[in-house]
Amino acid sequence: MSDHGHAHDHKGHGDHGHGDHADHPSYEKTYGILLVLLLVSIAGPEIGIKWVTLVTAFGIAIVKAYLVASRFMHLNIEKRIVSYLLLAAVAFLFLFFAGVSPDVMKHRGNNWENMAAQDEVDRATTEAHNAPAAHH
Amino acid sequence: MRPIATTRSATGIPTGRLAVWWVIASEIVIFGGLLASYLMHRLGHPEFAGPDFAGATTTWIGATNTFVLLTSSLFAVKAHDAAQKGNGPRAANFLWCTFGGGAMFLCIKAMEWTQEISHGYVITKNAFWSFYYVAAGIHASHVIGGMVIMAILSSDVRNNRELQRVELIGNYWHFVDLIWIFLFPLLYIAK
């Protein structure tokens, strides 16, 4: 039985399928990139253009997630089966969204109407227009 | 004498690391389901962007928490790097730095929630705030769980025992950071 306390047992970038640790991107550099992206994602929505907000807030979130997953979690040198496992979970997520979202996001269909949801949207929108500005 | 599960591997991946990936895959479904549900409701209820909803969250507090978690993730990967090189004490120190990041995140979160609750933005205020407190609350509970594990591991790691566990808790911690990377724009920016 191997002693897991010894360093060489898990110097295993070998068991990531990758033997050379020297050319790994700098963690500090990756951290710097993440901080810059964070600043851009905060500043972008201030411009007030919807597509810019979508790209900077959500697009950058995807880029940041990729950087953390590949460089910090070392998913880019991990065995492929792990990526397949994670992608399978994401696929189930999309399946859930595809199956449920029409009933939630739409308030009427061919043979149905969600009057409670529509009334709530109307009520909250009217209240927002009539209310004084929030103290945040 | 070690249990067979720690030495047998069908995939070639050490069993501990594979187990953490399984946990992460299941967490993708949990948090992903929660965030997908929020997204559906948000897209079906445009009033969620209003002043009594997402408009009342404080972007700079969320941004500060994002910075704190990103920094703690850096410490976690530095701990892994130290463990890879067999330097247990250095790895343990970085683990405690990561722990500190988690503690700072929770303090900021506590102050933020105190402020919001005092202004009447409670979990039953409306659907947005229900999502907000549930999503951020479940995330915070994962932060607490990670901190507890790091504290437990640190004594073994400091004595150069079970160094492979630094990578395992590091992967878990990076995933907790990843969740926040998606929570931040959904709850704090999209308004």
Helix content of chain B: over 70%
Mean pLDDT of chain A: 80
CATH architecture of chain B: Up-down Bundle
Spatial extent as radius of gyration of chain B: 19 Å
Largest sheet of chain A: none
Task: Report, as a whole number of angstroms, the end-to-end distance of chain A.
Answer: 60 Å
- CATH evolutionary superfamily of chain B: Cytochrome c oxidase, subunit III, four-helix bundle
Q: Secondary-structure element sequence of chain A?
A: HHHH
CATH topology label of chain B = Four Helix Bundle (Hemerythrin (Met), subunit A)
The number of helical segments of chain B is: 5
Q: Can you put this structure into words, describing what you see?
A:
The complex is a heterodimer of chains A (136) and B (191). With 136 residues, chain A is mainly alpha-helical. Chain A is 60% helix and 0% strand. The longest helix of chain A has 26 residues, at 80-105. Chain A is flat, with a radius of gyration of 23 Å. By secondary structure, chain B is mostly helical. Chain B has one domain: Up-down Bundle (Four Helix Bundle (Hemerythrin (Met), subunit A)). The longest helix of chain B is centred in the C-terminal third of the chain and has 32 residues, at 127-158. Chain B is elongated and about 60 Å long. The model of chain B has no long low-confidence stretch (mean pLDDT 93). Chains A and B meet through helix 1, helix 2, helix 3 and helix 4 of A and helix 1, helix 2 and helix 5 of B.
